[in-house]
Amino acid sequence: MRALPALLAATALLAGACSDDGPISRPLDDDGSESPGDLAGDDGNARSGDGRSGDGGARFVRALRPFADCSAFIDHVRAAALERVGPYGLDGGGGYWIAEDVALEEMAVDDVAVPAEAPASEPADEPAGGDAGSDPSYTGTNVQELGIDEPDIIKTDGERILVISNNVLTYVDLTDGDPRVAGELSLPEGWGHELFFSGDRAFVLTNGGGWAVPMPVEPLVDAGGDAEAQFADAAAESISPYPPEYQAPAAVILEIDLTDPRRLHVAATLTIEGQYLSARAIGDRVRLAVTSPPQQLPWVYPQSPAGEDRAEQTNREIVEQSTLDDWIPGYEVSASGGTSTGPLLACDRVHHPAEFSGFDMITVVDLDLATGIDDGFTPREAVGVLASGQTVYSSNDRFYVATTKWAGADLVRDDDRFRDWTDDYETDLHAFAISTDAPTEYVASGSVAGTLLNQFSLDEHEGHLRVITTDGSPWDERNRSESVLTVFAERGDTLEPVGRVGGLGKGEQLFSARLMDDIGFAVTFRQIDPFYVLDLSEPTEPRVVGELKIPGFSTYLHPVGDRHVLGIGQAATEEGVPLGLKLSLFDVSDPADPREVSVWTMEGATSPVEHDHRAFQMWGSTAIVPVQSWAGDVTGAVLFDIGDTIAEIGRIDHVGDVVDSSDCRPVDPDALTPESELFWMARDGHVQVCDADDRGGWGGWYCDPIPARDLVHWYRDPATAEAEFAAIGLSDDGRVEICWPDGYYHDAIQRSLVIGGTLWTMSPTTLQGNLLDGLAVTARIDLR
């Protein structure tokens, strides 16, 4: 998977071929800054590839320090909250709020305590229940880093398949050659269910309601009288200052006992106050990231602006009386031996930036599939950062969480300040040391200008973290964007920028990235897709060595062999209008001259691979791509042979045999005018006309009936409607049915696995086996 970097052996001197208007590579000084000479063009005028001057586009002054004890922690959060609390609480509570006096300035960093160096990680064991590693008999989850498994909705170990669909875990036994459902388990309600499994234990990771939190309500305090007295009076009269408790979102980890598939059951449940972000597994060791806002402070609200001063006074008292339980996320473990609860983190395991970073808490929690939750979960091993988190990436020895900052409401309402804040927008990066036999430890932090796209914006190689960001905040709509690659080195407790290259896609957004060893690829798009090749062999001097401009864009990039990269995204017009699914095969054997050598397109189609890399699968030279098309061309998966070209092998679906028993008649688009909305629907075969007593429906499709009396309102001119109704034979009491494949959702393939010679595909309702040789159906398992 990482064979492509060898291509860069002879390209180090080719970067000078880039034009003056193209990407600009700059080594950074020891302090992480660029020298003035590096920013000057040939004419001596200052020039910066990312719209900044002299700061390198990255800052490394955000090292964190641990709290000495719980007194230090509560003093810190109370002081920060008292500076920001108002008549409406903390203006939304969590998030990343900007203080008035420090919103746009970099604050000095106090001396920080450097955490003890974490143990180096040992060689990784086989990944848990997914990434097949070196096992050639089956595939696992398509992961970013080989050997580092990612959770998913389907997993296999070659002898069984575990599937999560419709809140049900299904255990499929493959051992006797006759695939069968050996057990099922209904899961608690929630969203985003995904799993790891190993041996006789699975972890199901999800978000769901589960933490009881009181919710404040307004009005409570008016302008006349004492706010505290009103609060007390309300309590004395049994009038709650907030409504009954509601179930706040919680991260829920279910330990499933797989010993007897006929009796699948939840052996233990870990509930954490907050939101589950993502997880990674090396061998049986799982690290999961949770972000938790403070959710339990019972703010009072004014009845009108005249009562704001009194409401603020009461809210300040609420802050002053707050306790650790109000700020540190809690946990609950439920198992056969009973229930245990408590704070998720010890105070001295929480780290914080020297400058304000909000009241959310990022927590990295260690779990072990070998020991389970009941015996193996130790809250003191969790480590936290007083900040929010969104994006997760892991290498073999480092677990990274990236922070997206949020603007306070007062900042958003001030256009000038919000624009300045957007221009200076940064993403914070936090690194945690991981090992197979030691607790996770926080080690370093840094900050980089701009916004991350997704986990593929991050990659680590030989101790250097490479990050691609796009200038501005996620809410910048001025199209002033540009993408920049920054290389960081870990020095002490800081991630320091040591190299960068900017100027990628000026005025465009980053759509995909893939960084591997000494080579990287990036795609930006607005109207035309520039495909960039980056030389990463020298960390202090990353370079853009090749660029290709083509219509359309790729949102997922997958290396194929040592010469090619497969891009999956959308075809588009030269004006940037998407047309449908596109696969592009890029020949990067000459990094200075990347070429698009083969293309496959399907008009009007999409693929879940465009937004979720786990939907893609590769078996040898065969790529399996789920495809959905409103036009009815396919709702299933397309198989391709990826060699020097893209060759379609075949298509499969989960629709099954359908008998068409409709009495209705397809509408001929030639009978309609191009100005008619029905014309464009009928052109794709979606429309039929029915008399009043006709049996409708279209075999295997879902049809929406529209009576003629309602359809007439689609037309501005009743005479045009009358003429068209006559042309297609629609009577006054008849109807038109607009139909599309019922399987567009129910039968839409989401994932695929290959086990031996069988391709297994999963849709929300079906797990299906097809022989790779000829694609004959061998098994259909109902997941409804």
Written overview of the protein:
With 784 residues, the chain is mainly β.
Defining traits:
6-stranded antiparallel β-sheet, 784 residues, mainly beta
Shape by Cα distribution: globular
Structural class: mainly beta
Spans of at least 5 consecutive residues whose pLDDT stays below 50 are 5-22, 29-61, 92-130, 214-228, 231-244
Major β-sheet annotation: 6 strands, mixed
Count helical runs.
11
Level of helix content?
10-25%
> Which band does the percent of strand residues land in?
35-45%
Cα-based radius of gyration, to the nearest Å = 29 Å
Question: Separation of termini?
Answer: 36 Å
Mean pLDDT: 80
Count of DSSP strands: 47
Largest sheet, order of strands side by side? 3-16-18-17-13-12
**From the structure provided, what is the oligomeric state, counting identical versus distinct chains?**
single chain
Write the layout of secondary structure elements.
Elements: E1 24-27, E2 58-59, E3 64-66, H1 70-84, E4 154-156, E5 160-165, E6 168-173, E7 180-186, E8 191-198, E9 201-213, H2 227-236, E10 246-257, E11 265-273, E12 275-282, E13 285-292, H3 308-320, H4 324-327, E14 330-335, E15 338-343, E16 350-353, E17 361-368, H5 372-376, E18 383-385, E19 391-394, E20 398-403, H6 409-413, H7 415-423, E21 426-433, E22 441-449, E23 458-461, E24 464-470, E25 483-491, E26 494-504, E27 509-516, E28 519-525, E29 528-535, E30 543-551, E31 553-560, E32 564-572, E33 578-587, E34 595-603, E35 605-606, E36 617-619, E37 622-629, E38 635-642, E39 646-653, E40 665-666, H8 677-683, E41 687-690, E42 701-707, H9 708-711, H10 718-728, E43 735-741, H11 743-746, E44 751-755, E45 758-762, E46 766-771, E47 777-782
Parallel strand pairs: 16-18
Antiparallel strand pairs: 1-26, 2-22, 3-16, 4-5, 5-6, 6-7, 8-9, 9-10, 10-11, 11-14, 12-13, 13-17, 14-15, 17-18, 19-20, 20-21, 21-22, 23-24, 24-25, 25-26, 27-28, 28-29, 29-30, 31-32, 32-33, 33-34, 35-37, 36-37, 37-38, 38-39, 40-41, 41-43, 42-43, 44-45, 45-46, 46-47
